[in-house]
Amino acid sequence: MRRLRVFDTTLRDGEQSLGITLNVEEKLEIARQLVLLGIDIIEAGFPASSPGDFESVATIARQMKGVAICGLTRAVEQDIDLCAQALRAAEHPRIHTGIGVSPVHMAKKLMLTPEQVVERTAAAVKYAKKFVDDVEFYAEDGFRADPNFLVHVLEAAIQAGATVVNIPDTVGYANPWEYGKLISFVKENVKDIDQVTISVHCHNDLGMATANSLAGIIAGAGQVEGTINGIGERAGNTSLEEVIMAIYTRRDEYGIQSGIRPKEIAATSRLVSRITGVPVPDHKAIVGANAFMHASGIHQDGVLKDRETYEIIRPETIGVPENTISLSARSGRHALQHRLQELGYDVAGEELDSVYHSFLELADRKKEVFDQDLYALMGDAGAGP
Ligand code: KIV
Ligand code: ZN
């Protein structure tokens, strides 16, 4: 089995795009859950972007053990200095530095020649290596770069000491067969590529982020980057839970495994949704409220005969309890408490009385009370599945 590393950037690429800023405590709470989930690398932020982000990265680096903590930088010494400082207490620090490599990024954003971009690449990686062993280089907008130039830049990064090379589809422009082909091209043409890990980092502008990431992994990438619930810039990043379960459900065929504990997926999704305030759509793959619902008569009949007729993943696998109790105004306190317990809430005594009272008010208005209603009742509106 080939081991796939899972790199979570919910706290950097995810948070960066939301127009909201998570405080240190909120970021820490998410980071703790990411460790429980089994994430290999947590990208905790972009320390040079603000004092708050610096503090978040430094706090996560101090407190999280048994996981690599990463900070993002531009290919600029000042950014790298701050990142190294923020990561000082990390058990496994990683600096993620890089630069735009597509024609439009080089000419219009950076106003640099390709040669200057190669020089900056080598200089930034070399400088980051003074502080940490583990340096990841990102070739921003790598998918839209000239592939031969991309090879040149990646060779410069590897020669300067990069341990991981990240080839982002920054604007979500790729199709799976093209992205897979690019990763194969990099594998075949970049000198010493076998000495480093190739990472895939996709955006979802055309709804392809999961498919593109899988194509890259199958072509040989050893690390996948993404966010929980797919939150991120514009249409979002790759949904890690989707890639993880796509690999997990077919692991024997693909010969690939990750260190993820699938049972923590639902709890992680709920937590990220609650803390960021970004709801999970009902029909979202894996973590949407309807992901394990069977609505039509034919499907219900099939599932009652054999779950495999319409279910490729058992909900329990990702930590969603099988729903066997239908809650209504006729249900008692015990049934409510039982279901809440299955959803991860321990309520008893006066708290149970109060929740039960609100539950009855709701049940009088609705025929059936669903898990989403219970999450809302418990102050977790927008949580799911
Ligand atoms: O999408 C992207 O190119 C990025 C890099 C900064 C890694 O997020
Ligand atoms: Zn990105």
Automatic annotation (TrEMBL):
Cofactor(s) needed by this chain: Mn(2+)
Enzymatic reactions: 3-methyl-2-oxobutanoate + acetyl-CoA + H2O = (2S)-2-isopropylmalate + CoA + H(+)
Domain (Pyruvate carboxyltransferase) ranges: 4-266
E.C. numbers: 2.3.3.13
Pathway membership, UniProt: Amino-acid biosynthesis; L-leucine biosynthesis; L-leucine from 3-methyl-2-oxobutanoate: step 1/4
Residues spanning the membrane: none
Protein family according to the UniProt entry: Belongs to the alpha-IPM synthase/homocitrate synthase family. LeuA type 1 subfamily.
Assembly: Homodimer.
UniProt protein name: 2-isopropylmalate synthase
Gene source species: Acididesulfobacillus acetoxydans
Part of the full-length chain shown: 1 to 385 of 505
